[in-house]
Amino acid sequence: MNRISPLRAALFALPLLTIALPAAADSGEDMVEANCKACHDSSVYTRENRRVKDIAGLQKQVRRCEQSLGLTWFDEDVDAVVNYLNVNYYKF
Ligand code: HEC
Cα(60)–Cα(17) distance, rounded to whole angstroms? Predict the structure, then answer.
C-alpha cells in the first residue's frame, strides 16, 4: 500500500486551505452590508421601541429577515450576523 507522508499531505492541503478560508470567513458585517439594507438600515437595531429583547429573539428575527430575502444561510451564517449585531448594536 502506498502511504502518503504527513509532510506531503500537509503541503498538498495548504493551498486548499488558503482558498477555503476567506470564503468561510465572511464576516457578519459583510453579510449585513451585502444583504440587509434593502428594507431597513441599522437604525432599526437601536430605535427606542426595538422589538428584539434578547439573543433568542435576535436569532429568530435575523432568520426571519434572511428568509424573507429568499436566502438560505447556514446556522453559522445566522450566528455570525447575530454576533455582529449584538456586539455593535444590541449588547445583550
Ligand atoms: C424584505 C425586507 C427586509 C429585509 C431585506 C431585511 N429585513 Fe430585517 N426587518 C424587516 C421588517 C419589516 C422588520 C420589522 C420592522 C418593524 O417592526 O418596524 C425588520 C426588523 C429587523 C430586526 C429587528 C429590529 C428591532 O426592532 O429590534 C432585525 C434584527 C433585522 N430586521 C435584521 C435583518 C437582517 C440581519 C437582515 C439581512 C439578512 C434583514 N433584517 C433584512 C424587513 C426586512
Answer: 32
* 38 CA from centroid of ligand 1 (Å): 9
C-alpha 82 to ligand 1 mean position (Å): 12
pLDDT of residue 23: 47
pLDDT band at 69 (very low <50, low <70, confident <90, very high): very high
CA dist., res. 5 & res. 49, Å (int): 61
| Atom of ligand 1 at shortest range from CA of 66 | 38
What pLDDT shows up at residue 14? 61
Q: Check pocket membership of 83 for ligand 1, CB cut-off 6 A.
A: no
